[in-house]
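2 proteins. here.
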Amino acid sequence: MKTLAWKTFLENHFIWIFITFFGLGYGANEAVIRVTENVRITQTQYQEYQHLKQDYPILKKQLDDKTAEIANMKLISVVISSPIDGKRFSVEEAAKGISFKVDVNNNVWSDRHLWIAVKPEGTNLWYPQEKINLKAGEFTTKVYFGKDTGKDEIHIVEANDAANTEWRTYLQTVQNTGKYPNKPIPDGAFSLAKVQIVRE
């Protein structure tokens, strides 16, 4: 009778007995994993360690690849070959457009943009004129000026995406209104090279 009673008890309470013993066993496993003689970690900590150990070669390769990519990046190098620095032009000639030539020696990064911009000497007033639409090589165009005398700087400007968008919007406004307002150079843009010309 006692045997039958125990059998009935086990059948009716099997799931709870299983959970209880499994929990006790899991708790024991959590406590007994030993790394060294004096260091013990839990099962969860050990699993996290194993995952990190597996992921390390992949993460290290990604880091090495990115490090090599950065090491191979070169600064954009530009040389203005025409006009020469200090060249003098008549006001009429400058208003019709001065021939401008620049050599881009290194590839332009995908998130950087090159622009031609004019700045009257001694001011922070910039007049973007044209974007240089090439990655590397020689670019030739014309640069235009107002009908007055003075000294001006022609700059090659490197711009990030935000500055590029700002100057594209500026040129669209110029096209729509026919007016050329001066503006400070936008954040994210800086001059790579310049030449000075004199209008007289």
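next one coming up
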Amino acid sequence: MSRVKLFQGLHFWLKGREYTIKQRLTDGSFQICDVVTENVSCISQTDLIQLFFKDELKFENLQATTKANKKDYCGADFTQIPLDLKQEALRREQYTLAVLEKNDSRRTKEFLCPIIEETSQKINDSHPPSYITLYRWLKGYEYSGKDIRSLVPNYRGRGDYRPKLQAEVNEIVEKAVKKIYLTPFRASVDAVYDEVVASLEQENKFREEIGLEKLKIPHRTTIYRSISKLEPYEKTKARYGSKNVYCKPRIYASNSSFRKSRD
């Protein structure tokens, strides 16, 4: 038996297209949005239930999502993180601090390898990181404002071999959305995509110089999907101003669940 609760932000697939629930309307129906085209439409709860029972509608794996969130320590109190993960984060910090103490912007193999060897001997580490791994730790550490929680191992993706957006690419996409889309100029998604491509080309030139693999340019639908996950209230406020925002969309979920039995 599977149980699905309908709520704002829930993703589902219907006839090969991905949708997200924007809000529940006063008549009990749901306002949904096509993730790619951003077209908004309405569908009744009865229709959703019927489509679900006919196996024509598929929901995202909520159980897996819930379990994954429990292992996300980015916003956690560091003292409450499990001891083994905390020790690993402290080990990684030893390497990142050793690089930053040099006060040198170079991140080449020739520059990082001696630091790795020196640090591994200093802390008696039998499994030192590669220079590429250390480079990634440094980027995350600096981007987070030197927050040690950025070095806590993230095991959420292990065992899932579906293609994922590289962390560096995701960072560039987020910056482009804030810079181009979330402004009163109301730029299009295409403009955001152009900014992402330009930023990635610049980043790849730098990576090529230091011998790192180039980052892959995401598909245009990735930008649509990223924007669709934005909070509707904040998106409207950024693009149209606070005067045009009367209230945040209300979430109705108490009576919006149903069960499906499987024999």
